[in-house]
Specification:
This protein has 294 residues and is mainly alpha-helical. 69% of the residues lie in helices and 0% in strands. The chain has 13 helices and no strands.
Length: 294
């Protein structure tokens, strides 16, 4: 029986119309995504632009103003008079410890909640997840009172403890969803071969959860790298202050060095941007892994 491989005239017309509509949708989607990208990047462009201006050039009707001469002195002042190197190291140490401890605890907790069966497991998990709806700054006053009684004010542990505590809910949420996608047969085989619980956790599970670990680390780094309110409340000593304190160095009672302030803010933003760009693929895998199961 002979089949007709050619489309009839009405069918060809419909096919052409569908193809045109599809092309138009792609063009509109492409345009929308470009527009969204520009909107998202504009604050960064605006920040860098203002960091290269003189303090007197900020005021005017223009959103962006091309500098007549690039004021690299703003960045020099940030390093020389803003205490950027010392504050940067303090921020790096506090953020790195927070990120590392949160990732390890999230892995251990997620393993306990998804692989082990014990009493009050669901209740304990729900209590930890309550941290998702409680903002950290709502605990500022009770934490201040508690740390004051424990003589822990002006101490780096006064930052590390709340940072880690409020990193755990979202970290465990991501890690739990990722662990649900890993077949349990792999762990059962390892246990039958004589692997201990900690060996199973750190030699078998940890390498397979790298996308989730990367996601947790990047999210927590971005969250705590430029945190200021908690640090400003609990820290007094110059040797312990973090990078956002550099901005206050250029704030006066009657005038401020806006160029240096924008230079400091640019330096604060750069590490987060670089880390996000480097680990963006891993973050996508880690976030979407638990969305589809089976």
């Amino acid at each position: 029986m002979e089949t007709n491989l050619h489309l009839s005239q009405p069918e060809l017309h419909v096919h052409t119309q569908v193809k045109k509509k599809t092309s138009l949708k792609k063009i509109l989607l492409f345009f929308f995504m470009w527009l969204l990208a520009i909107v998202q990047l504009f604050p960064l462009i605006w920040l860098i632009n203002f960091s290269l201006l003189k303090s007197g050039d900020f005021f005017g009707p223009s959103f962006l103003k091309w500098p007549e001469t690039f004021e690299w002195a703003n960045y020099f002042n940030a390093f020389a008079y803003g205490g950027v190197p010392r504050y940067f190291l303090n921020s790096l140490m506090i953020t790195s410890i927070t990120v590392a401890v949160s990732a390890i605890l999230a892995l251990m907790l997620a393993f306990a909640f998804t692989r082990m069966r014990w009493r009050f497991r669901t209740l304990t998990m729900n209590l930890i997840m309550l941290g998702l709806i409680i903002p950290i700054h709502a605990t500022l006053l009770p934490n201040f009172i508690m740390f004051n009684k424990l003589n822990m004010l002006d101490n780096q542990f006064a930052l590390l403890l709340p940072y880690i505590a409020f990193s755990l809910p979202v970290s465990m949420f991501i890690m739990t969803g990722f662990l649900e996608t890993i077949p349990k047969e792999i762990e059962e085989s390892a246990i039958m071969d004589g692997c201990s619980i900690f060996g199973l956790l750190f030699k078998i599970i940890l390498p397979m959860t790298k996308p989730a670990i990367a996601t947790i680390c990047v999210l927590n780094f971005i969250t705590w790298w430029n945190e200021f309110i908690i640090a400003n409340t609990f820290l007094v000593s110059e040797d312990l202050k973090t990078l956002p304190f550099s901005i206050l160095k250029f704030t006066g009672q009657y005038s401020s060095n806006y160029g240096a302030q924008f230079a400091v803010m640019t330096l604060i933003a750069l590490p987060s941007i670089l880390i996000f760009i480097i680990f963006s693929k891993q973050m996508t895998k880690g976030i979407t892994a638990g969305a589809v199961k089976g």
